[in-house]
UniProtKB/TrEMBL annotation:
Polysaccharide export protein N-terminal domain: residues covered: 170-244
Single Gene Ontology MF annotation: polysaccharide transmembrane transporter activity
Coiled-coil regions listed: 660-718
Classification via InterPro entries: Poly_export, Poly_export_N, Soluble_ligand-bd
Name listed for the protein in its UniProt record: Polysaccharide export protein
Lipoprotein listed as a keyword: no
Record flagged with keyword Coiled coil: yes
Domain Soluble ligand binding: 251-299, 336-385, 520-563, 616-662, 757-807
Source domain of life: Bacteria
Lineage of the organism: Bacteria, Pseudomonadati, Thermodesulfobacteriota, Desulfuromonadia, Geobacterales
Length: 869
């Protein structure tokens, strides 16, 4: 009880802050207003510098877990939480509610974070709050309400020009002219003139050829008649019109609790609201309900801005005259109303004395307001803070609501809190899962499962053997799970057709959530092989239709179904052979019913690939180069003849025939050779230090091994050509040649034009290509043109790679003749290769095998150039 009392007293003290514009931090420190001397933090220590000014807009009201009521922006000021804590922001909103645990559905309202700015405070108010600093640590209430804001002050927070006096508005007939007003006078008839005239210091208009006409004190509606009467003394048969060109400026005074007091020169049509807006509006210590206009020392009007803000009534918004004084007194008694009203805010009280009056200012209750407990936080002046709970429910008192609220007095600094009703959704059950219309349903007396599901709510293929009810069991609403048989419940079996209770959640399952879907598989020569659902009565022909039917390559005389017989302990497979042609024709012996897990395999027509999928590509000097199909047993000469034979530019010696199967074999051997070379190289590197005779030899050998390692890495990127050495000749002669191979598909034959050059590579002084000259057509001639072998060349290992891919080396005994290897003929397209001599040390001679391997790999890949880069 004592804790509740302390909490209540703290709430009332905090509510005091609301009406005097101060803001408290969590620890009780005061936050000064913009322009104030200091900001006091949680421990009471001052912080230098002003705080951004607090806005004055309506604060939205969003109780945690309840419905929200949001008032229009632009009319609030300082803000206060429902527990009395000040949070100053024109956009302050309560923190978002936490997510509710499993249980009855609870309506929740989103909320935005609260900005932290301060009110404008007077020195006396600040001192009062600092004196009360130690009592501001009350705990928050269980039901938090949104912070409140002073009503009306945000109207003056926008751009002053938005309500500034205008000079181009129509002038009413009762406007009194005075010095400085400018008019436009148009005369037509016997005389025509357009004049711009200004009322001078004497109150006169000076009209050419007429003289002065006194107009000061004349109303705008009387002015045309006055002018016509005076001008008519000098002119006859004329007409005139008068329009106001520019209004004079009048000086008025704004004093009291305004943000920018002083004297203001404003257009003559300016009203109380115009001038008050220009002065920044009342401070939050200033009254909105008792603004006084004095003229010649007398009060001519008292303006209550609530009439304008709440009703749109501007009847008291009078036009100001020169010398008028507008006085804004200090704010009067205030009371706040928070929670479930249409416009929660802090209101200044004038004639309002009861809760009925305060509710009228807040535009009444919203349906979510809980009337059985309305709380009023009150300050008993100079004594204590109290909290009282009032039952406003008309059922309890037997009176109408207005009668109940009219009997509750409201005092200065009261905070009325209208809490939300229980936000728990009641009287419903929830249907979920494999149903047509899931959602919440009203719980009717005696409602059972069958009643809920009877309205065609079950989807096809629902699972009828079991469904689930999650029930919240009082008093702690812990969940329990019940199961029932849907089919039996729909048959109104009393054991399964359970009676439903509030908050029950019923879930219906799909058949295929609870059972394994029967499937069959089809593969092979069909358009869409895959796994398909097995339907009741499904046959072979049905499955073929699902799979997009047969491909042209399908062998229809024989197909195989693999069937599985299974029990809980064993599985047995066996095959069924069917004729697809007969199955498609509907023969029941072949278009048999399918069973769960059957697999239908459609074979391809035998030799289809060999007969229809073999091609050769002819490139270069053919009459009709291109891609040609290869027939079974067809030879190379046949395809050449189909291509129209050779062109006149064809260089048959350099013809290059590659075959896919040969390329695969060569690639395999290349990979094996590179692995062997890499292994040998690693062994050499491991013994390098022990076999080197000197430091110089060690460094030289190390550099050689590193170069070979890089070469191996490069050669791993090479792909075998798959080239077959071919001695191509004239077509008639070639047909009887052993080189007229039977084609197998995947070949490419390229016949280039004569290159006209000979290539020299390796350890010569000038690696290059030379124009072929018939008079110097041997190895010696081209070796001499390349500068001859270098000092590290191995002259005994020189060889020639012919244009057809064959190799002639110096060591071949068959080529020894008079004059030696230098007399070997060189023809266009041939390549002369001079390798490096590796015999400087006994150890380096051991890597000769490695270099020979790499050389062979380069030849197989057709990359002799790479080897000698």
């Amino acid at each position: 009880m004592l804790r509740q009392l302390i909490t209540g007293l703290s709430l009332v003290l905090l509510s005091l802050v609301l009406f005097r514009g101060e803001a408290f931090t969590e620890g009780g420190g005061v936050v000064a207003a913009a322009g104030g001397p200091a900001v006091v933090t949680s421990g009471g220590a001052p912080m230098a510098g002003p705080v951004a000014p607090m806005g004055s807009g309506f604060g939205p009201l969003a109780p945690v877990g309840g419905a929200s009521s949001t008032a229009p922006a632009g009319m609030g000021g300082g803000s206060i939480t429902s527990s009395g804590a000040i949070i100053n922001s024109s956009s302050a909103i309560a923190p978002a509610a936490q997510q509710a645990p499993l249980g009855p559905t609870t309506a929740q309202s989103p909320a935005a974070p609260v900005a932290e700015t301060s009110l404008d405070l007077s020195v006396s108010e600040r001192a009062m709050q600092e004196a009360a600093d130690g009592s501001q640590k009350a705990k928050p209430q269980a039901t938090a309400l949104a912070p409140l804001q002073q009503f009306g002050y945000n109207f003056f927070r926008g751009d002053a020009r938005g309500f500034a006096p205008l000079t181009d508005v129509p002038v009413s007939n009762d406007y009194i002219l005075g010095t400085g007003d400018r008019i436009s006078l148009s005369i037509w008839g016997s005389v025509e003139a357009n004049l711009e005239l200004e009322v001078n210091q004497n109150g006169d208009l000076v009209v050419p050829k007429v003289g002065t006409i006194h107009v000061a004190g004349v109303s705008y509606g009387q002015l045309p008649g006055v002018l016509k009467g005076q001008i008519g003394q000098y002119l006859k048969d004329f007409h005139l019109s008068v329009t106001m060109n520019r209004l004079r400026l009048v000086k008025v005074y704004v004093v009291g609790q305004v943000k920018a007091p002083g004297d203001y020169s404003v257009p003559g049509l300016s009203t109380v609201l115009n001038v008050l807006t220009a002065a920044g509006g009342p401070t939050k210590n200033g009254s909105l309900r008792s603004i006084v206009v004095k003229r010649d020392g007398k009060v001519v009007e008292t303006v209550d801005l609530y009439d304008f803000f709440l009703k749109g009534d501007k009847s008291k918004d009078i036009r100001l005259l020169p010398g008028d004084t507008m006085y804004v007194p200090s704010i009067g008694p205030v009371a706040g109303i928070a929670g479930n009203v249409r416009r929660p805010a802090i209101y200044e009280l004038k004639h309002e004395k009861t809760l009925k009056d305060l509710l009228a200012l807040a535009d009444g209750l919203v349906p979510t307001g809980y009337l059985q407990r309305v709380q009023i936080s009150r300050v008993d002046a100079h004594e204590k803070r109290t909290v009282s709970d009032i039952n406003l429910d008309p059922k309890a008192s037997g009176k109408v609501l207005d009668g109940v609220t009219a009997s509750v007095a409201i005092k200065d600094l009261d905070v009325v809190k209208i809490f939300p009703i229980d936000a728990t959704l009641r009287g419903y059950v929830r249907l979920d899962g494999y149903v047509l219309r899931p959602g919440d349903y009203a719980l009717k007396p005696g409602m059972r499962v069958e009643t809920l599901l009877a309205q065609d709510n079950l989807l096809p293929e629902y699972y009828g053997e079991a469904a689930q009810i999650i029930r919240l069991v009082a008093p702690d609403f812990h969940p329990e799970v019940l199961y029932f048989n849907v089919k039996q419940a729909m048959a109104k079996d009393p054991k399964q057709n359970l009676e439903l209770q509030e908050f029950d959640s019923i879930k219906i399952f799909s058949r295929w959530e609870m059972e394994e879907m029967p499937q069959v598989r089809i593969s092979g020569e069909v358009q869409k092989p895959g796994v398909y659902r097995l339907f009741s009565g499904m046959r072979v022909r049905d499955l073929l239709v699902f799979a997009g039917n047969l491909k042209l390559t399908a062998f229809t005389q024989n197909a195989e179904i693999t069937r599985t017989d299974y029990t809980k302990t064993s599985v047995k497979n066996y095959s069924i052979i069917i004729n697809l042609s007969k199955a498609l024709a509907g023969d029941p012996q072949h278009n048999i019913p399918l069973e769960k897990f059957d697999e239908l395999y459609i074979r391809k027509i035998p030799n289809w690939a060999e007969e229809t999928e073999r091609y050769i590509t002819l490139k270069g000097e053919f009459v009709f180069p291109g891609v040609y199909p290869v027939y079974r047993g067809e030879r190379l000469s046949s395809v050449i003849r189909r291509a129209g034979g050779y062109t006149e530019r064809a260089y048959l010696r350099a013809a290059k025939l590659t075959r896919r199967s040969v390329q695969e074999q060569q690639q395999k051997r290349m990979d094996e050779a590179l692995q062997r070379a890499e292994k040998d190289l690693m062994q050499k590197q491991a013994t390098l230090a022990s076999v080197a005779a000197s430091k110089e030899e060690l460094e030289s050998t190390k550099a050689t091994l590193e170069a070979l390692t890089k070469t191996i890495e490069q050669m791993r990127k090479l792909k075998a050509e798959g080239r077959i050495v071919l001695n191509l000749s004239a077509l008639q002669q070639f047909e009887d040649s052993t080189y007229n191979l039977v084609l197998e598909g995947g070949e490419t034959l390229e016949v280039p034009p004569q290159p006209g050059v000979v290539h020299v590579l390796g350890n010569v002084y000038n690696q290059t290509s030379f124009v072929y000259e018939p008079e110097m057509d041997d190895v010696g001639s081209y070796l001499e043109k390349a500068g001859g072998p270098t000092s590290d060349a191995d002259a005994s290992e020189i060889y020639v790679v012919r244009a057809d891919g064959s190799v002639v080396s110096k060591k071949q005994s068959s080529i020894w003749r008079f004059g030696g290897f230098d007399t070997t003929a060189m023809l266009p397209g041939d390549t002369l290769v001079v390798p490096q001599k590796i015999e400087r040390t006994a150890w380096l001679r051991d890597i000769k095998d490695i270099t020979q391997i790499l050389s062979n790999v380069a030849l197989a890949a057709g990359s002799v150039y790479l080897w000698f880069k």
